[in-house]
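Annual report, structural modelling task.

Input specification for the iron/sulfur cluster complex:
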Amino acid sequence: MSDALRDRTLQVLVDVPVDKALLQYACNTLAVMSPTTTRADLLRRGWALFDQIAVTLAVRPACGEGCHWCCTLPVNITDVEADMLARHVDPARRRRLLDNAARAEGLDDAAHTEALITCAFLDDGRCSVYDDRPSACRYWHSLTVRACEFGYGRAVTNIPLHAERVGLFKTVMMATAMVVAKRFNEPPRMGREKGELHAMVLRALRRQTNRGQPRRGAR
Ligand code: SF4
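The model returned the following structure:
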């Protein structure tokens, strides 16, 4: 991601204030769980809660089915998200992951954007893991397809994001991180442990192989 794009995105992410009432509501909603609730369960519930609340927003983003201009941008994900994506990997997908991870290795965000590395989970212009797509893909709510198209492969661009949706997503994800931290008695992570999507999914596959776990049933 270019400095300009990153600054614009960060500006949206930082400028939108966290709605404390919404944060409390999300925490209360997510805190209702069973003893077997996993991190992946809570993340899925956080995503679902965002989708549910976002329906009420009057202004809709330009993002729609089959639009994939942003699927060459660098995507950073957590271990939990990587485990979820690893469930969808067959041998052909693994080869694409290996190719992309090799191409992306050592690139900064700007170079990665210009390299046009199409996400290994994109099939015929559609996300093959849509229900399990990571948070980074979910908060990207563009207000104009033309800006995304213009920005394709360009490290310097300015894509206006839907600040209200981004703020809502940020708030719900903050609540999710707080509930996960409380549930597992650990400090809130807030995404600091993220890494590049392809490398992270390959790491998750190796982790699962080392543990002798089947791919289905990510925890
Ligand atoms: S996970 Fe899906 S939405 Fe995200 S970059 Fe890959 S194909 Fe696109």
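The mean pLDDT is 86.
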